[in-house]
Amino acid sequence: MPRTADHDGRRAQITTGVRELALLSGLGSVTVAGTAKAAGVSVGLVQHYYDSKESLLADTLSRLLIDIEVRVDAAITLAERDHARIEHMLGAGLLELLPLSPVHRDETYLRHAFAGLALDNPTLAEHQRAFDRRFRDRITQAVRNGMECGEVIPDTDSLLEGEAAFALTQGLAARLLLDGHDGARNRAKAAIAARMASVFVGPCARESQ
Known about the structure:
Blueprint: H1 7-25, H2 32-39, H3 43-49, H4 53-81, H5 86-95, H6 102-118, H7 122-149, H8 158-178, H9 182-199
C-alpha cells in the first residue's frame, strides 16, 4: 500500500525550523533556504507546502499561538482539578503568558517578534488580534463566572476587567523579556496575583457547601 504523507507533521517540522532559526538569529533572518536547513528538509519541500515566505511565517505564528493556548488550557485544567477558586484558575492561565521558564521565554520572544512584523503585515496582524480577542474573552468569561459563583461583585464591569487583566499580562511579559531576573519575575507574579485578588474579592458559594 502507498504510504500516506503526514502533511501536518511536515508543516510542523518546517515551522519548528522557522522558530529555531528565529530564536538563533532573529525573525528578520528567516529565509526559505535557512528554514529548510534548520528543519532538515529540502528547499523544494518547504516550497511544496508554502508558496511564499509570508504564508510560512503566518503558519508558524498560528501554530505558536495554538501551542500557547494549549498550555494555558492545561494549567487551568490542573487548577480546576485541585478545586481552586476561579481567581486562581485564571491566575494560573495568565502566568502561562509570562516568560518564567526557558520555553516560555522563547515563545514570548517569538510572539513579540511577530507582533513587530504584524504592524506592516495584515495577515500576521489578524492572527495576533484573534489571539488577543480570545484571551480577553476568556478573562471576561472568568469574571462573569466569578459573579455567578460569588467571588466577584455583581456590578463589576467584566469587559473592562478582561481588558485590564490582559493588558497587565502583556505589559509584564514585555518587561520580563528585557529584565528576567528573579526579582522581576517575582514582582510580575505578585502583580498578577494582586490583580486577581482585587477582582475576585468574595467567597465562592461552593466553598461553603
